[in-house]
Amino acid sequence: MSADTHARGGVAALIPIGMLAFAVGLAFHRVYGLSEVLVPALVASTVPVLLAAALHRGVRAPAPVAAAVSVLIAVAAGCAGYARDHLAGGIWPTPGAAAELFHRLADAPSEALTTVTPVPAGSGGTVLAPAAVWAAAAVGAELALRTGYSALPVLPATLLFVGAILLATGAPGASLPLVAAFGAVAVVVPALRGPVRRRGQTVAAALLAVLLAVPATVVAPLLPGAGRHAFDPRTHVDTPKPLTVRGTNPLAYISSWLQQPETLLFTVTGPPPTPGGTLYRLAAMQDFDGVSWLPSDAFQPTGGRIPPAAHASSAAANLGPTLRQDVVVGDLTGVFLPAADRPLRVDAADEAVAVDPDTGVLAGTTPLHPGMRYQVTSRPVAHDPRAVEYAAAGDSAAALRLPDRDASGAPIPVVDELRGYAQEATKGAGFPYQQAVLLAAWLRARAVLDPQAIPGHSYRHMQYFLETSKQGTPEQFATAFVLLARTLALPSRVVVGFRVPEADTREATPVRGGHVLMWAEVQFEGVGWVPFFPTPGVGTTTSAVAPPTEEVPTPAPVPAAPPPAADRAPGRDEVDRAIEDEQHPPAASAPHGGDEGLGEASVLAAAAAAALLVGGYVVVGLSGPALVRRRRARGSPRWRVRGAWDQVLDDLGRVGPPVPRSATSTEVGGFAAERLGESAGSAALALAGIVDAVSFGGQDASPRVVDDCARHAETVRCGLGPAMAGSRRARAADVLGRLRFGALARTYAVHRAAAADRKRAGS
Asked: Full-prediction pTM beyond 0.70?
């Protein structure tokens, strides 16, 4: 093929190459957001293609010159778009601007893999998308214009597209429609660049690929396991350095908030809260050093999206409506942002926000200040106790850690005392959920809520609270629950937040110091973290509590659960009270409620796929011998001679072991005589002689010779009836023989031989 032919084919393929490069940019939309990549990708996919065409067709620049010009223009454009602060006079690129651009480009993959996607707007890493698009367009265009390989120009865009898709693993949204579109466009390039005599076949293959891509795009998300990621590059990078969140431990403010219950901490505007009051989480902590709870240090920057909770299932939860609430900060101090659980997205205008992916807790990188505004979208969760009831305890090692030795290595006696209290409180419990329910009830009955109690939650404070004072703030109740639960191997953590009673809620809800609350959460396998409220007067789950007053309430017996109404399911309060009085068998003998298994749709999809696979296998296998006979009657003379021999071998295999392909003519005649009788044996031997003469002796396959072969093959076939009559085993072997793919493979071999014969005859 001449250079001009290459150029013509290359110019024709430049349009789909530009489209493929643009698709590379769109693949980054899940990482950086569509608005951040759309216009840069459009520019970066158009300019290098036009530039390559002008340099090649116009000035006839050699490849090194064209590559250098493309790189210089790309760097200049990148500096203008992503390193404006380093431009000379705000216009001209400088070495400093180029260095800044390259630093951002080098750090972009790591930033994308260590940030909760989408990456925050304005991040320097967004330069990665147009850089990848420019590379795909420039290299692909040069290969199309300067080489004669049909599919080679598609390779750069394909590699970069796959990289972008992997980089978006776990990000919100879907890439499957984009993958289908990329594949449909990719097959157009070889069609435009291939030989004219083959373009019809290539176009047909392209249309077939498009037709297959459409149903695959629809069906693939419905298949079992489609929601799981086979490969996640984030698991193969070094753990990112946690974002530093500098702020006072929120536990330090609980006492002062309770002492000043009317202080306005923040205001929430949005949909009405859930029945029974709304919880606003401020911080969740699971690291305990024997003296204090320590806030998480695993925060990651986020562009607004909060990842879903790990190891949680919707099967054991009732998901409420999505809430979109606007929060205005008042006298709330610290860095943690209150939000209803579990937040899905946060928008804080110019404020940088970080998230702990495990707990969903939000924090600002700078301290809160009065008047600060942000919007948070949440999806409240109410766990179904009957679905959680028999779930096994989770496996979070950090949520089970309990310091039991002091600095000198000596045992801490209070740990054994806590274990004794826990065993006393949960005596008779048969499964983890019942242990947690009984433990919360035991604490509510043992001590009373006193907002004026001395704050603190160390081992010494817990010992004094449980043995002596039996009065405490929510801080002591929640801490006692978690420490006791950990002695029972229940993974647990404390949560600091606010509870607004239903009676105090309206469109603009003020959250005051008296609404502060501290509760506990226990992790269950396949369910996630389930809240428990051991503080008296708060209720077991969703009942509201008014701001505490200085009056010290007295403990009250837990009322009996009212009978559920006929038209509604019992709530968690009612179920938990019933569980407190039940004696259940051990969890090992009870049904497990934490394993979802395959859903009905997945089972049906798997069954349909298996039926199609088996049905296709049977149809193709049974049609194999018929294809051989039909092709034998329609092919060239040499083909028909060979087809008669293959039919004899197939027939002999139906009444005995398969005949080896290396068997001699005499051996085949002996097999036929032994299995089908002397007449069939003589016919097989005669046919073998003709096949040898035609294949190796140079004899012409005349019409008379072909007819003799057909007659001998039919004689052998007539011997099948008596041999198979009355033999159940032979009939079974016949069916199994038809289900093999040997006949189909021989059909393909005969077809190739016939094609070679026709080619020799034409030459």
From this structure: no
